[in-house]
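Lab notebook, bench 4. The sequencing result for the construct came back, and we need a structural model before the next group meeting so we can plan mutations. Quick request posted to the team channel:

Model the 3D structure of this chain.
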Amino acid sequence: MSQNQRTALELAAAGVPVLPLRAGKLPFGNCRSCANNACGGRPNMKNPGPCTCRQPCHGWAAATLDPHVINSPAWARVWREAAAVAYHPGGAGLTVVDLDNADSTAWARASLPATRTVRTTRGEHWIYRGTMPSSNAVRPGVDIKSLMQYARWLGPGSGVTAALPDVVRALAVKEPTPARRPSQTPTTPLRGKSGECRHRTPAYLERGIAMAEQRITEATSAIHATVYRTFLAVLSTHGRCGCLTDAHVARLFTAAQAKGESLRHCTDAWTNARTALGM
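Done. Here's the predicted structure in token form:
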């Protein structure tokens, strides 16, 4: 039995659905019976692994907890050729924030709640408890892997797994149709009695605003969508504790307008972000 197969059995016993990966971090291709969906299979969350094939077919949908499948002759042959073990985060009730480089890792450390982390070849996986739709390139160097997606197993990592926060969910939210507003002035943010960030520190808020300004400033395409997602992330993290002030909002608007956004677009994006978060 190969080490990959032993690892797969250990993960499956712990409730983590697994599948083999070939070289290049890719799942094994479908067998002849399932090639080009000849079996009629279209894997989804309600119908993963849609055919009776005994091969590890259909990508992420092949992930299994069944030790009999993992140890079957068909899978045993594949394990001998496998380059790595992958798992289905959504099937284990998890979401992986895949940080692909040093810049995205620095952003996560400044912007996301601490959680269990796993080192990767170029960055880190931040693992949260909870599921959401998977989405690639939610920001430079950042992918989200959860439902209908697989992630490479690189070890248990370190730290305590935190609950999936709104700021991560917000990254995958697409901007709705801009709302019509009679006024083109920024809406006043939610305020607290103290005007301080009660869930962390004022320094944490300052880093968050600075990172948001940088994200908008460095955007080279999809400016409007970037502005909306940035507003959404700021509000998700700081909007409910009363720490945001008009000065903070003005800084974000100024950064957006410097990229060509109108005041009306900024106001609509801010309003839509608050509406999306129920604020």
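The first strand starts at residue 18 and ends at 22.
Will bring this to the meeting.
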